[in-house]
Design brief:
Shape: elongated
Strand order of the largest sheet: 4-3-2-1-5
Largest sheet: 5 strands, antiparallel
CATH topology of one domain: Butyryl-CoA Dehydrogenase, subunit A, domain 3
CATH class of one domain: Mainly Alpha
Number of helices: 5
Distance between the termini: 59 Å
Radius of gyration: 31 Å
Number of strands: 5
Helix content: 55-70%
């Protein structure tokens, strides 16, 4: 039981921070940051939804939102948005299911097998959340690196050159955390599912045997006259 609680709390810890990292990563503005050391006046960041410029001297930040989602955008931007939103939804629901499956939460306290199944479902959802999250963040980072390397290789200087920023790193960290928590909840909790199932069947067999024994003892203590009367009543009823 102690190991089961420990695994649940470790999975809860990683699921909480992983879902938070993915959500913060999706809705922050620093997926790309300017990498040109000669620009000392301002810092420019690009996110999935807007682009922000921060003045180095006074710290004033100015953000410009991109065009509508129906406007034409690059394939990199559209697919990364879709994958990160999918990861946010799956990780959020996985975390909520995990909260319901914790033994310390008073939800279905008399149904340990159902609570274990809820933890397993949570683990599967977290594993699924990690897949689009790591795909979107890593693909975005690699694409930025390839674009920068190709410009440097061809000696092209556009004034501002980008590298991937902390929002992209948060997406990777959140995705890896989802994989870790999902693995704990699916692989390790499955062992406790088998143990709990065996205990449930043993307890059911004991209760069934006990009820059968009580019935036999009760019938044995019935007087013979009552037994004969009941048999006659059964015959008359059938007739």
């Amino acid at each position: 039981a102690g190991m089961k609680f420990f695994l649940q709390y470790v999975g809860f810890f990683f699921a909480f921070f992983s879902a938070g990292f993915l959500i913060i990563s999706t809705w922050t503005d620093c997926w790309m940051v300017n990498a040109d050391d000669s620009l000392e006046v301002s810092t420019k960041c690009r996110g999935l939804w807007w682009e922000c410029v921060t003045n180095v001297f006074d710290g004033i930040q100015t953000c410009d939102e991109y065009d509508s989602i129906y406007a034409e955008h690059s394939v990199k931007l559209v697919l990364t948005r879709a994958m990160m939103i999918t990861a946010d939804i799956l990780s959020g629901f996985g975390f909520l299911f995990l909260v319901l499956g914790l033994d310390c939460v008073k939800f279905l306290p008399d149904e340990p097998l159902i609570k274990l199944r809820i933890c397993l479902v949570s683990g599967v959802m977290l594993l699924l959340a990690g897949l689009p999250g790591i795909t979107g963040s890593v693909w975005y980072a690699v694409d930025v690196y390839v674009e920068r390397s190709s410009l440097l290789f061809h000696n092209v200087f556009l004034g501002i050159q980008y590298k991937f920023g902390w929002s992209c790193w948060l997406g990777m960290a959140g995705s890896l955390g989802c994989f870790l928590s999902g693995s704990l909840l699916t692989c390790c909790m499955y062992l406790f599912r088998e143990t709990s199932s065996g205990r449930f069947h043993s307890a059911y067999s004991l209760r069934k045997g006990y009820s059968s024994a009580v019935t036999i003892v009760t019938n044995a203590h019935l007087p013979s006259s009552q037994t004969a009367t009941s048999k006659m009543y059964a015959v008359d009823t059938r007739v």
